[in-house]
Structure formats: structure tokens, C-alpha cells
Amino acid sequence: MFWIAFFTCLFMVYALSSWLTKLMANAGYSLGSALTFVLVLNFGAIAGAVGGGWLADRFHIKHVLVVFFALAAVSIAMLGYKVPTAVLYFLVGMAGATTALRGERSPGVDGLRPAPPLGNDCLE
Questions:
Q1: What does the domain layout of the chain look like in residue ranges?
Q2: DSSP code of 77?
Q3: In CA terms, which of 40, 79, 81, 111 is 20 to 30 Å from 16?
């Protein structure tokens, strides 16, 4: 079940990164403003990776991921409503920040398997 959450999160990140500019341009925003949404998404991902890593060090990673995924679902769902541009930037940044801890880049980040040991004994 947990891998489904990772898969859908990764799918959402790639979909937003690929289509956000086009969707915002179709919604009536200028090309520059639409590109700024992608920039905000990526800056949010940077902040979310750092902040989420800090939270994961202090709390259990599973709990942090559940909260992050819930916030991501809310922020992405809110993108479909007519809100002021400043709120829209916040929602896109929140979507980027809360999908930054996906777990596909480092072993053990999903909390289900231990990180590999360091040193020569890992080759045995």
C-alpha cells in the first residue's frame, strides 16, 4: 500500500513539472507568470526536502510522510478553485514542498528498510 503512495506522488510531481506551465497559460496567466509557477513549485520542493528531512530526523518518517501527503492532496485539490494569485502561488509552493520527500533517491528514507551499513562489511 505504501508503494502506491510513492508511485502516485512521483507521478504527480512529473505531471505538475511537465504540464503546470501549459495549464496556467490555458487558465489565462501570461507565459512569464505561468513559468513562475514552475519556479515556485521547484523552490517549494527544495524547502520541503530540507524541512522534511529535518522533521524526519526528529519524528518517525512514516508520520512525516503521511502528513506531507495529506497536505499535498489538499493543496493540489485547492488548485482547482478560483483563488487569488498569491494564494495560488502558496498552494503550488505547498504542493512542491509536500511532495519533495518521495524516497526514490536514498535507501531507507521510506522507513521500511534499513539503510545499508557503511564500511567494508557491506560487501560480504
A1: 2-104
A2: H
A3: 111
